[in-house]
Amino acid sequence: MVKTRRHLQLERVSSSDSNQTKESTQTADRRTQHISTITPLPPPLPCVVVNSSSSSSSSSSCTSASDSSKLSSTSPATPRSELSYEQRRLENIRRNQAMLASLQLPSAKACLRQSHVDSPDSSAIAQATQRYRRKLNRSSSGGVSKGRRKKTTNSVVSRVSRRVRGQTPDSVVDHRSSVDTSSKVTLREIVLVDAEAYWRERNHRDYILVSGKYTGWVNPDLIKQFGLPSSALECKQRAKAAAGQRKGESAREWSATQMHKNPNCYFYRHNAPGYEQWTGDWTDEEKDIFLRVAREYGCGDKWGLFSSYLPHRFGYQCSNFYRAVALKEGHIVDPHYMMSTTGDPVFVGARK
Fold first, then answer.
1. What's the pLDDT score for residue 148?
2. What is the pLDDT of residue 16?
């Protein structure tokens, strides 16, 4: 008998069905074996309630028993670990609810709120709170609360004299009193004395009398070393072609370019090249050089030319030393200065 294609297909379907039925029976046998090996569940744990009434304890124990019975009846083939976790979770929930009920938090909160409303100090506390908030707002807004900022007005104070106000005017005092050759003159209520007379009264005659003019020129050693002009006439001829101070240029910057054109301007703010400036107190050697040059050439002006003999000092340093030390200590007497009764030299200018 020859099998057709249709017969072959039917045989294949029947063989696959028989295989599926065999596999299903085998899986069913394995499940029954597994269920028979599962150990029985332990009995439900008793429920412990803290600080609760007898009625609540009895109701909680009943609910726990019913819950455990429901779990045992409705959860088929549930693992033991999952059941123990679920039981512990339910037990914790019940215990927490019982503790909250024993504390009676809602009733305590309501009593506290009612006591705060009924207290006589509640309004005072509210007012104090509002004042404190306003203070914080003022401090954050620069000291003035919003909407109440003071308007600043630039008030111009007009000056009114005493005569216009109907009062007696002050006595007019002329402080610009003329200076003469007399030994004493009053200037702003300070008694000024002629310098020579001042030092004679104190038996001090070892001083250098100068005319207030410097008659010398640049130190000859610096003229040879740097090729500076040998006289004021030669310096004037060089200065004719020199450019003036540029806009925005400081006096020190401009004077640094005037060594060969205007030595007095240069040495007033600079040392000779290669010499360091000294500051502070003068040495005895510097004082001796200062007095020697003053005795030989005089002093009182052209401090740049004068300082060329002191290689470590600027011209303005020599000018300060002249007023603060030489005149005040009586080393030099200048007719342009008079001595006050306090012992300070005061410039009065040329006297006729």
1. 56
2. 63
